[in-house]
Amino acid sequence: MPSSGSNRSNGKQNAQGNTTATTYKSPAPNSQTTSGVSANPAYKHAATSTEDDDFLSNYAGPLIKGISGPYDTLDPSFRKIGSHEEWSFFVTGRVFSMLMWQPADERHLVGKSMVRYGERAYAKIYRFIIIQPKSARHYSKCIRISTHQGQGATKKGLNQSEHCMVYSDNDPPEKLPRETKMNKPPIHMAPCNPTQKLDRASRVDLGKTYPVEHNVKVQEVGMITKIHLKRLVGYVKDLQ
Asked: For residues 100 and 126, what is the distance between their CA atoms, to the nearest angstrom?
């Protein structure tokens, strides 16, 4: 684990042979959070950007807003990013996860669940990639990583040509059977620590962007490597 207050910067080559750097300062882990980041040689991630070029004109739904409190009450490893960290964390290419609360039925009573407002709810982990931070408005436009219940881009109703694979191992896995129309080259994510591995069925929908407020409670997952970041942003631009 890095020492308290240490910066990860000016790193060495990653698994794809790219020399990359970051300006994000990891908080020291404490009794309330596990968001301190392990020293991973592959996690010397892509150049950061907070450009406000408004190429993203479409998004999938209303603004995803945060709620009060510095930590999630069910899992304190999900925390609110402080104002002094905002523009070093919310940068193009950052991958983060957050808990999204949904009404529960009998299928969801195992795992992260609690009672709110007299009704049982369960939390599902959603992973996002930041595509465009909006500095004046304190939110970022993101795309979502999903396995679609292990079906990848073969799930019924998906447009495979608007999806691509995102992976965290050194080499991309094979596409799933019937992913015949998903032809875009895959995107590599350098995980922030060894526990943050992506499932082999992880895919991103390049045609849907989600506006996410910077006061949501998040957990760091990783960073899109530099050689693939420009490619990913280009995919999203082409579909707007």
From this structure: 7
Tell me how far CA of residue 17 lies from CA of 11, 41, 212, in angstroms.
12, 12, 32
Q: Which residues contact 126 (CB under 8 A, 6 or more apart)?
A: 97, 98, 99, 100, 144, 146
Cα-only R_g, the chain: 18
Helices (H), 31-180: 86-89
> For the segment 226-236, what is each residue's pLDDT rounded down to a tens digit?
999 999 999 99
Q: How far is 197 from 240, CA to CA, in rounded Å? A: 29
pLDDT of residue 126: 93
pLDDT digits (tens, 9 = 90+) for 183-230: 999 999 999 999 999 999 999 999 999 999 999 999 999 999 999 999
Q: How far apart are CA 221 and CA 167, in angstroms?
A: 12
- The beta strands (E) that lie in 150-200 are given as 163-167, 187-191
Instruction: Look up residue 191 and give its DSSP letter.
Output: E
d(CA 200, CA 83): 35
**4 φ/ψ angles, rounded to the nearest 5 degrees:** -60, 130
Residue pair 170/191 in contact (Cβ under 8 Å)? The answer is no
Neighbour count for residue 152 (Cβ, 10 Å): 24
Q: Distance (Å, rounded) from C-alpha 235 to C-alpha 240?
A: 9
Whole-angstrom distance, CA of residue 39 vs CA of residue 51:
28
